[in-house]
Amino acid sequence: MTNSVGGKNILTSDDRKAIEELAYGFVKKEIQSMFSHAGADGDLSRVPDILEQGARIGLLAEHGREEAGTGVWGTTTLSEGPALSIGLLKIISQTCGGVGACFHAAGLGSLAADMIGLDIDGRLACIMPDFDDLHVMPCLTDAETAYGRSSIRCDSTDAGHVIKGRKEFLLQSGRTTSYVLIVPAKAGNTYAWVAATISASDDRLKISNIQGQMGIRAVSINNIEIDNKYIDKQYVITINDKDYRYIIYAYHLIGLTAVLTGIAKGAIASAIKYARERYQGGDLIIKHPAIRFLIAESEARVMAIESMLEGVSGYARGDRSGDIRGLVKYAAALKWFGAGECVRAITDSLQVFGGYGYMEDYGMEKRLRDGQTLKSLSGSSVIHRHTVIDNMETLP
Amino acid sequence: MTKTDFRYAVSTLKPLGRWLVNADNISTWEHDTRTLPLPYRRLRNKYRTFAREHLGPIALEVDRDIGHFDPLPVLRKAGRAGLLSEFMVKPIGSASFYGLFHNITFPAVLKAEELTSVCGGLGLLILDHDLGVAPIMLSGDVFQYLKWMSKIAYANKYGEMCPTAFAITEPSAGSDVEDSAGASSARLMTYAEPVDGGYVINGRKVFISNGGIAKYVTLFAAIKGEGAESWTCFLIDRDMKGFSVGRHVEKKMGQRASDASELVLEDVFVPASRVLGRVRSGWAVNRNVLAYSRVGVAAISLGIARGALEKTIDFCKTHSLAGKRLMDYQDIQLTVADMMVDVAAARGITWQAARSFIPYQGATAGAKVFASDTAYRVSNSAMEIIGDYGYVNEYGIEKALRDARLTQIYEGTNQVNRLALIEWQLDSELS
Ligand SMILES: Cc1cc2nc3c(=O)[nH]c(=O)nc-3n(C[C@H](O)[C@H](O)[C@H](O)COP(=O)(O)OP(=O)(O)OC[C@H]3O[C@@H](n4cnc5c(N)ncnc54)[C@H](O)[C@@H]3O)c2cc1C
Fold first, then answer.
1. Share of residues in chain A with pLDDT > 70 (%)
2. Is B127 exposed, middle or buried (0-12, 13-18, 19+ CB in 10 A)?
3. How far is the CA of B173 from the centre of ligand 1 (A)?
């Protein structure tokens, strides 16, 4: 499907179209049916199978699986940037934000492994150190600062590395077999960022599922604890190039916003359909300015975020491809601002349904729960605003 | 405290100057309570104590346990505490003469804020009873008021429980039964046919809060062959032949402790003595109930917003980052300040609308819109501040957001309430 230019895979617009068509068909066949008889969140037992099907037909990246290169966060991302993944995540999330979040989480783990050059097979989840200071994302700081602050860290000796710590609120597809760890390490007086993997079944790894999450219930949100895991030297890679961390962090925020945008698009489409059928106030409600404005404003919000998503894709191409700080700033602004706008579009679309929007029947309350959860996920708006200002070009 | 701290500097003032500074180290709740007359202060305290003792401990569990929760024990506690008999004076009911004849809306607003600050759903479960009996009061028939209110208040306070519900919404007439313009073309489906000794009612009502548990339902129906202008209010007993509850627990996003049920009426015979007020006066009764109850929804919204704020403050006081309490970060303080301002503004507009002896549609619709939008905004800010913890059920903040969202929909959507405000003022400052 792809052409090779200078060793990089380039997708033609026809290729893109074909992949998106494939995604629409997949959503219709596999994801919509999840909701036919089950409650608001769908038949969650089907999610692993949906992911498997997605990977098999090339819609979801899976490390070491050739056909998935063009899927969500597939290897084409390395040459083309996030545009294709954004498109696919939007299509999937129009029907189910939770499944969209699964595709995002699973794909990103795989991409992280591809970027770093980790040589393992499996369904991966990516772990970066979380923030423990309001003003600093350790993954964006130097290793020494990060080591001092991070909840997961690595102590290195000549013999090998010992990783320990805890990470909360980790988004996972539910079929993870290994974790990719990108953590700050200390060896004597020197600090570095390192990457390693740990098997999901390792007895040094304790995984506990967060109970009672508001939305995106198709995806698991876990806390993990690593109890002094010894990893042999040969399985740990030192990451000298900080861009990897930045790019994965940025893609994480971009992916989450793409999922949110998809949910909002789905909500608007449902609202228009409903407004064309519901009769109140002597007319179809689509004729009332109150409803027209709710829908029009929602559409404008989503259009704005879609332009931002397009804009951020530009950082992977041409002149801007080296502007990693710009990418991080853009991604943080996108997640903070985009999440707010998308959730506003979702809640306004729900309002079009009146009381029916609040009930499970039309799937609108689920969309709002999913959207709100994604909005809070991976750092509060406080953090993202700090990331924006910390990465502004005018600052030294 | 530093020497430039205002509270410290006060000590340097002369006695009169010191007296003119309000430097009391008390919460905004206490400040606000002090502005109230003594009977209301007592009531506010009583409602808060009840909510904390009886609703707080079960709020999260009830929300999770949708469909399995038995509301009667908590209703019984509310009944015994006098919370379900406040439209009838003591000793039968629990209202004081001061309360009932000074202003019946204001205590209801105080009650709504306190109960829903702890749990929107349990609050609605208790408060909806006041909505259910409102047509009995507002239909203007003193004999019916004395007969039914005494019976219901007594049962709730001393005997077997007697919760009530209010039913206007129909499957194809939601906003249309909340709004004058829509009513004339409403597609109604619940009709009362006059027969010997009474009426036979057929039809369906939907989304009726507490409809699944109510002993009596104040239900509105058009006279067969006529439109909404013929609406008549009937007091339906759940044991009447032909009356049934359809979809009992409609699965809803929040406020789950109170069911929203479908009521089905198949040839239900209702004696003429159960018509509340006059035949064909139901539309006016309905609109007046809404004029009162919308300020109740404003207060519910205010309570939910305050609950979200209190939970956020609690979280920020007990969680630290990098060795510093969240509450001590300026980032957090800025947002918490906005939330406090929002809640105070919602309380201002709500109390103002409830202060007049007879509240009017323009004020209560406006208060409902403002307070419910505030509740949603404040619970959103709460979720934002606490980040990932926000979407986890155990902190109660995502629940506050789900509970808040309903206040923008029921008792008329906020769009319809905006139009109601305009309708009411159209012949005065908007003419
Ligand atoms: C949980 C819950 C509890 C409830 N409890 C009760 C209860 O106890 N008793 C009871 O009788 N009802 C109850 N309701 C019903 C509630 O009051 C209605 O849902 C509400 O009035 C909206 O009506 P609808 O759902 O039919 O929406 P619709 O009327 O269909 O409205 C759909 C959309 O169209 C808009 N719209 C409608 N007409 C106009 C117009 N003329 N101009 C501009 N925009 C318009 C609305 O704003 C809304 O956005 C409850 C509802 C819920 C969800």
1. 90
2. buried
3. 8
CATH 1.20.140.10 is the classification of domain B289-430: yes
A159 compared with A9, residue with greater pLDDT: A159
- Parallel, antiparallel, or unpaired for β A283-284 and A279-280? antiparallel
Tell whether A152 is covered by a domain: yes
Asked if the model's pLDDT at residue A386 lies above 90, the reply is no
Indicate the domain borders of chain B: 28-162, 165-283, 289-430
B383, A369: Cβ pair inside 8 Å?
no
Both tokens of B186, joined, read: 């409403």
Size (chain A), residues: 396
| Within-domain flag for A396 | no
The per-residue pLDDT for range A24-50, each reduced to its tens digit, is 999 999 999 998 877 899 999 999 999
Q: Measured over all CA atoms, what is the biggest interatomic distance in chain B, rounded to whole angstroms?
A: 83
Here the CATH number for the domain that contains residue A212 is 2.40.110.10
Buried b (16+ CB within 10 A) or exposed e, B157-184: beeebbbbbbbbbbeebbbbbbbeebbe
Q: Provide the token pair at B410.
A: 């029921």
Ligand 1 contact, B259 CB (< 6 A) = no
Which whole number is the average pLDDT over A199-228?
92
Chain A residue with minimal CA distance to B408?
Answer: A351
Q: What is the mean pLDDT of chain A?
A: 88
Query: What CATH number does residue A100 fall under?
Result: 1.10.540
CATH 2.40.110.10 corresponds to the domain B165-283: yes
Q: Which domain holds residue A203?
A: 125-239
Question: Average pLDDT over chain B, rounded to whole?
Answer: 95
Q: Are residues A365 and A259 in the same domain?
A: yes
Report whether B379 contacts B400 (CB < 8 A): yes
Residue A241 reports pLDDT greater than 90: no
For residue A324, what are the contacts with CB-CB under 8 A and spacing of at least 6? A242, A243, A246, A247
Are residues A40 and A139 located together in one domain of the fold?
A: no
Report yes or no: B325 and B431 within 8 Å, Cβ to Cβ: no
In short, whether A88's Cβ falls inside 6 Å of ligand 1 is no
* Residue B418 Cβ < 6 Å to ligand 1: no
Same structural domain, A113 and A134:
no
Task: Give DSSP secondary structure letters for B172-211.
Answer: TBSGGGT-HHHHTT-----EEEEETTEEEEEEEEEEEETT
Percent of chain B exceeding pLDDT 70 equals: 99
First-to-last alpha carbon distance for chain B, in angstroms, is 56
Q: What is the pLDDT of residues B63-75, one digit of tens each?
A: 998 778 999 999 9
CATH architecture entry for B28-162 = Orthogonal Bundle (1.10)
Residues A277-306 have a mean pLDDT of 98
In order of A310, A327, B6, the CA distances from A261 in angstroms are 12, 19, 48
Does residue A213 register a pLDDT over 90? yes
Window 276-305 of B, Cβ < 8 Å to A: none
- Taking CA atoms, A9 is separated from A12, A41, A65, A250, in Å, by 10, 37, 16, 22
Q: Flag whether pLDDT at A65 surpasses 90.
A: no
Atom of ligand 1 nearest to the CA of A291: 44
Q: Is residue A227 part of a domain?
A: yes
